[in-house]
Structures are given as C-alpha cells and as structure tokens.
Amino acid sequence: MAFSIHDYHLEVVNHRLILLHLVLQYDSEKKEGDFNVYDRIMINQQRGDLLVFVRSLFRQAKNEDVRFYLLSENLDDKIDLVLNKIKKQNWKPNPIDYDNY
Prior knowledge:
mainly alpha
C-alpha cells in the first residue's frame, strides 16, 4: 500500500517507520535480495525524512527542514511483497544482544 503525503500523521508515520525497519531487517537477515542497494538507499532516505518530521512535531527540528520524500510505486510494491512474505512465514527478526554489541 503506497504511503502518501496525506499519511503524515504521527501514528501513521511511526507505523511506517516500524514497517520500513522490518523489511530492511528481513532483507538483511534472509539475504534473498528483495531490495537492491538503490532500493535500500531510498528506503533509508524516507526513514530519515520521517524521523525529521517526527522531530518537527516536538519542535526538535524546524518545519522547513521537513521534506516529504515519497517512494516510487514500484518500490512501495516491493515493500508490500516483502511484508507479505514476512506475514506468511511468521518471520521474526533476530534479537539484538545489546550487552555484547
């Protein structure tokens, strides 16, 4: 499902951040090559812009620093396919051991 400019509300943005992090984790851990390097850059670009948006809501960033970086429809479709794989496989990311990180 495509993420649009109308989705820039705190709850929706937080949910989008979680989903983008999850698909990147899946792609890294499963090594199935769902995303190429440029896809990963664009996903991380949107993640960064969403984080600036959240910071602006709490006055930790200037409103003029907020950009509404949207992904292509093709990349949004790839993200949806990976999310469907995650759901079908009931995949969970490997836990991170922060004590030994």
